[in-house]
Design a protein that fits this description.
GO terms for molecular function: 2-alkenal reductase [NAD(P)H] activity. The protein has nine helices and 15 strands. It is an alpha/beta fold and about 350 residues long. Strands 5, 6, 7, 8, 9, 14 and 15 form a seven-stranded mixed beta sheet that branches. It has a four-stranded parallel beta sheet with strand order 12-11-10-13, with helices on both faces. The two termini are about 20 Å apart.
Length: about 350
């Protein structure tokens, strides 16, 4: 079963397969020797056919496999193994960027558009069912791009990240230890260049990225305020995630005034994760403080070479109880469309993911 943009469902798998090494002869010479291109009969083109094709050229021999008379024998078959890898999908990540992939772009985006009728592709946690690669073993665990389906066959497993800490919840590799967590770390530490004591504002602060930016900032000794879309999320930010303050932006009629209330001396770092209502007011507050504002975007793919260091550091934070991570887990592949759609109305509390198969 898979989830497609058209919401149809299919199955597929991969691994070794049988291939017929020869065809059996038939009393019908045309049927017996017909070739895939549909133009060859008896192994050679007729004079008329060659003239129709433009004339000249060497005669082509029959391109079909060897022909034998009688019934097939076991020796007519051979086992073929490819270098593809069959994966069982365990957890699927629901991420806001996937909305953009549902739009047809005239100019190519940083990720390709989804193809209607094909399985949706996104980040997930997978277990290898069968490997045709010598450096990948059956049973290995990875995270990376996979299909929204029960099983996925891939030809480029080099794009996957092998899971190092399988003693931690595997679902963390869709968020905390996966792309969203790495995005938070790169964005805050590499792009923002924080200093101890700085004032940090995080929008959509209870989401997959925002909740970690706030906690990374706290570990740096920063003063952190976050915005969220419900009172429940505000309480989680203050009582679970350690933010100094948080507010429900939906209840604020004047966001500029709200930000001045929480940052009377201005904002040093504003981490934007939603491109929402807070962007312009926060930028104004930042400019009051610094007089020189730098706005910078980034693509996390450009920093993947630093992922192993991140994985080690954050896994240690988890073991030491320095990081708390909120997850909102939908059960079953059939729940994936509703889980993804819920992101855009703020229905989720914490990182939204889908448990396809818990192991």
């Amino acid at each position: 079963m898979s989830v497609k943009p058209s919401l149809a469902k299919t199955t597929r798998g991969g691994g070794a397969g049988w291939r017929l090494s020869c065809l059996q002869s038939s009393n019908n010479d045309t049927e017996r020797r017909s070739c895939l291109n549909g133009n060859l009969r008896g192994g050679r083109k007729s004079e008329r056919e060659r003239e129709k094709d433009g004339g000249g050229g060497a005669e082509q021999e029959d391109c079909a496999p060897a022909l034998r008379d009688g019934f097939p024998k076991e020796s007519d078959f051979e086992v073929v193994t490819g270098e593809t890898v069959s994966l069982k999908n365990l957890y699927l990540s629901c991420d806001p960027y996937m909305r953009s992939r549902m739009t047809k772009h005239e100019d190519p985006s940083y990720v390709s558009d989804f193809t209607p009728g094909s399985a949706i592709v996104g980040y997930g946690v997978v277990r290898v069912v069968h490997s045709g690669k010598p450096n990948i073993a059956d049973g290995d665990l990875f995270w990376g791009m996979t299909g929204w389906e029960e099983y996925t066959l891939i030809e480029n497993p080099e794009s996957l990240f092998k899971i190092k800490y399988n003693d931690l919840p595997l679902s963390y590799y869709t968020g905390l230890l996966g792309m969203p967590g790495f995005t938070a770390a790169v964005g805050f530490h590499e792009i923002c260049s924080p200093q101890k004591g700085e004032y940090v504002f995080v929008s959509a602060a209870s989401g997959a990225v925002g909740q970690l930016v706030g906690q990374f900032a706290k570990l740096m000794g920063c003063y952190v305020v976050g915005s969220a879309g419900s009172d429940e999320k505000v309480e989680l930010l203050k009582n679970k995630l350690g933010f100094e303050e948080a507010f429900n932006y939906k209840k604020e009629t004047d966001l500029k005034a709200a930000l001045k209330r929480y940052f009377p001396e201005g904002i040093d770092i504003y981490f934007e994760t939603s491109a929402g209502r807070c962007l312009t007011p926060a930028s104004i507050i930042c400019s009051i403080t610094t007089k020189r504002i730098r706005m910078q975007g980034f693509l996390v793919f450009d920093h993947f070479h630093k992922y192993p260091e991140f994985e080690d550091r954050v896994a240690q934070y988890v073991r030491e109880g320095k990081i708390f991570y909120l997850e909102d887990i939908a059960e079953g592949l059939e729940s994936a469309p509703a889980a993804l759609i819920g992101l855009f109305s703020g229905r989720n509390v914490g990182k939204q993911l889908v448990a396809v198969s818990r192991e």
